[in-house]
Design a protein that fits this description.
Layout: E1 12-13, E2 24-25, H1 31-40, H2 45-61, H3 75-84, E3 85-86, E4 91-97, E5 103-109, E6 113-122, E7 125-129, E8 133-134, E9 152-153, H4 156-170, E10 188-191, H5 201-212, E11 224-228, H6 232-242, E12 245-249, H7 255-261, H8 270-278, E13 289-295, H9 303-312, E14 318-324, H10 338-350, H11 375-389
Parallel strand pairs: 2-3, 7-10, 10-11, 11-12, 12-13, 13-14
Antiparallel strand pairs: 1-4, 4-5, 5-6, 6-7, 8-9
The protein binds S-adenosyl-L-homocysteine and iron/sulfur cluster.
Iron/sulfur cluster is lined by residues 136, 138-140, 143, 145-146, 195-196, 229, 249.
Length: 395
């Protein structure tokens, strides 16, 4: 299916705020780090625990950004905080709303880089697709982000800041009183935006810990899914240190094909990946590992592939998520036909695997899985290419 034209009337751009700041951003600090930072900047040690709790609540429970509004703190203490610290989240540069309600935000982070964040409203819930890196070091051949070089890892502040930014836009900071999960617009998080989250483990972990904290945004660990291309040595830690659900970009049933589609396979092949997943401490029938499988016409979509997949999954509490390939300009693949995808799904289902076909969302605004690639970085790369062609590249 060809994506329809973008609905440009729904693109909102926001003026650039140049606010270089030497203040310390409190967003993204773990509770311990926040306490330590307060102490280092003059909060008496005896008070630090209490102040940490108070400031934490203002930031993550009430969404307050201005110290002046933190009214349970003494006035001069608030003034001191404002002098040294800030509560800063990534700045929204533009927002597009798809015909299906999906929202794609382009946010700017320090250094002038931009990353994309996608909000997907669903019946009774809503999922935020969060980025973990600007670009990606990996080069999966079907992924648009993979054509963009890694620029840098996002900080914990920038990762949790994406969630806070979305809550701002959805107007979802709760009134006083416990937030009710069922009514939440932003009820789930998937680490499926730009980047490989397990190559930025500590920052992703700290950000998710903040999101899960009982005195703040309060999302349960089972409402967070981290997707990895298969960074085997970090898989175990994901269960131990984050405890969220795991998804794996599997996409092929032979090493030969997976080497091309997901080149990290050359480092950790299918066998090594499956061994690590078999040992994933959190994998149980109620917390299955999701195997993401992008359906590429004539590449990985035969009945034989489906049967091989069934064999490979043996012994792993798994579900398969079939993703119709989301095409992007210049992509070297085509999406499998709906009939092919259904036939593939049937084989999996007959073998007892739940295998929903993911409905592409936000295609008209290029917000679907694997289509994220920020315009600035895109421009940067093409300028390099132009320079290379003209023989102007730095020696
Ligand atoms: N780097 C991580 C998470 C980001 S990608 C990972 O690779 O798992 C999120 C999911 O979208 C992955 O399963 C990825 O393989 C898939 N994906 C990438 N490009 C895609 C495309 N063009 N169409 C459909 N899915 C795609
Ligand atoms: Fe990176 Fe994931 Fe895209 Fe592969 S699929 S290039 S790991 S973002």
């Amino acid at each position: 299916m060809e994506p329809s034209a973008p609905i440009t009337q729904d693109v909102m751009t926001f003026p650039r705020k140049e606010t270089p700041s030497d203040k310390i951003n409190l967003v993204g600090l773990t509770r311990d780090a926040l306490r330590q930072t307060l102490i280092e900047n003059g909060t008496p040690e005896k008070q630090a625990k209490m102040r940490t709790g108070q400031i934490w609540q203002w930031i993550y429970q009430w969404g307050v950004r201005d110290f002046a509004e933190m009214t349970n703190l003494a006035k001069d203490y608030r003034a001191m905080l404002a002098e040294k610290f800030e509560v800063r989240v990534p700045e929204v540069v533009s927002k597009q709303v798809s015909e299906d309600g999906t929202r794609k935000y382009l946010v700017r982070i320090d250094g002038g880089h931009e990353v994309e964040v996608v909000y997907i409203p669903e019946e009774g819930r809503g999922t935020l697709c969060v980025s973990s890196q600007v670009g990606c070091t990996l080069t999966c051949s079907f992924c648009h982000t993979g054509t963009q070089k890694l620029v840098r890892n996002l900080t914990a502040a920038e990762i949790v800041g994406q969630v806070m930014m979305a809550r701002d836009d959805l107007n979802e900071w709760p009134e006083r009183g416990a937030p009710k999960d069922e009514t939440r617009l932003l009820s789930n998080i998937v680490l499926m935006g730009m980047g490989e989250p397990l190559y930025n483990f500590e920052n992703v972990r700290d950000a998710m810990k903040i999101v899960m904290d009982a005195e703040g945004i309060q999302l349960g660990r089972r409402r967070i899914t981290l997707s990895t291309s298969g960074v085997v040595p970090e898989i175990h830690r994901t269960a131990e240190e984050i405890g969220c659900l795991l998804a794996v970009s599997f996409h092929a049933t032979t090493d030969e094909t997976r080497d091309v589609l997901v080149p990290i396979n050359k480092k950790w092949n299918i066998e090594k990946l499956l061994d690590a997943l078999r040992e994933y401490p959190k994998a149980t029938n109620s917390e299955r590992i999701t195997f993401e499988y992008v359906m590429l016409k004539d590449v990985n979509d035969t009945d034989e592939d489906a049967r091989r997949l069934v064999k490979l999954l043996d012994g792993i509490p798994a579900k398969v998520n079939l993703i119709p390939f989301n095409e992007w300009p210049g992509a070297p693949y085509k999406r499998s036909s709906n009939n092919r995808i259904r036939a593939f799904a049937t084989i999996l289902m007959q073998a007892g695997y739940a295998s929903p076909i993911r409905t592409p969302r936000g295609e008209d605004i290029m917000a679907a899985c694997g289509q994220l690639k920020s315009a600035t970085e895109r421009a940067r790369k093409s300028r390099r290419q132009i320079e290379a062609e003209a023989g102007l590249q730095a020696q």
